[in-house]
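(Protein data)
===
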Amino acid sequence: MEDRRTSLTERRRAATQMEIALAAAELFAGPGGAGTTSADVTAEAVARRAGVGLRTFYRYFRTKEDAIAPLLAQGAERWLRLLAETAREMPLRDALVTAAGRALAPADDEGRESWTWTRGLLRAAHADPALRAVWLRVNHDTEERLVPLLAELTGRPAGLGTRLAAAAASAAIRVAVETWALGDAPDSGPGSPADLGVRAMRDLTANLDALA
């Protein structure tokens, strides 16, 4: 019974955290995903939009900018999971390219909505050091998690070559998404995150097999 209560509490905490994160993302993204400045968004506004008190907000996040991290990390988690699954079916370089395309393609209406606020967030982060620091931290954490995954998939030690491969794969995703966000291309088709991600991943991992 205790385990069930603990699990329920953890699920509620996770749900509240994501509600706050989504509220923060929508506010930072601005109307239509145009992006806004950090000065125009307050922790009070995020808490109010999420339907929680300011004390609750600070129980989960240290700053208003930190509140977007769980949503960004959710996308990174999907990319890592898809890579692990895809790599069982094909060579690693092909798996990296395929997983990038799958992870960056909107699967449904909810996925398309998430790309709207992602574009707004990254436009805001482009001119806002605090928001950009959160984005870069999430990318760095993803790269660090990718190192042991690549080592496991290749059977190689997590040395220089593996770290270079992880850095290249992470950069491909990051640069593709940033490039799309700062432009006007749609979320699918030519110029979309998936299109740019596949192209970048293919180019940056061209010499993957040569990494020692």
